[in-house]
Design a protein that fits this description.
This protein is mostly beta strands and about 160 residues long. The protein is about 10% helix and about 55% strand. It has 2 helices and 12 strands, in the order ααββββββββββββ. A hairpin with a 2-residue loop joins strand 6 and strand 7. The N and C termini lie far apart (about 50 Å).
């Protein structure tokens, strides 16, 4: 299968699924995937791999959600996205968690979006921030989206004196 056809297959598969980590308005938008270097689809295994370069990383976006990295592994179960793992130097994530809240930013060697458990796992030089509220660095950070809870290993944290909960 040529590169263009593989890219079209990957984009169509990604656009079919909703991604429950995004704002309610984000869920009504298509998920767009850009694979500037190469993409592979293993349809029988429910796996897509998308690659970018250091000059032009791969990217997934859906409304306010944006994920970049050198490589994505998109894993599906029963046609729905179960896990997305981005690796890079660094892989990055941003998303507005709720209407009226500031954007959450994360970066690390790898970022895994666990759709089923509503958890983001950031590993390797992990950083997490939400403007005006918190800035955290650690080797590993887990962010429970539903409960807005951070769990970090060997954490360093800055909480601004004017932080709001």
């Amino acid at each position: 299968m040529n590169r263009f056809l593989k890219l079209l297959v990957l984009i169509n598969f990604c656009a079919l699924a909703t991604f429950s980590l995004a704002l309610p308005d984000d869920l009504n938008q298509d998920m767009l995937t850009s694979c500037p270097a190469r993409s592979e689809s293993f349809l029988d295994q429910g796996l897509e791999i998308c690659r970018g370069t250091s000059d032009e990383p791969a990217e997934i976006s859906q409304g306010s959600l944006k994920l970049t990295g050198l490589e994505f592994r998109i894993e599906r179960e029963q046609g729905l996205i179960h896990l997305i793992t981005a690796t890079g130097s660094p892989a990055t994530f941003q998303q507005q968690p709720e209407v009226g809240q500031v954007i959450v930013y994360a970066s690390g060697s790898s970022i895994t979006l666990d759709n089923a458990n509503q958890i983001i796992i950031i590993q390797g030089n992990a950083a997490f921030s939400q403007e005006g509220t918190i800035e955290t660095t650690a080797e590993r950070i887990e962010y429970d989206i539903a409960n807005r809870k951070l769990d970090a290993t060997q954490m360093n944290m800055v909480i601004p004196s004017t932080a709001t909960p």
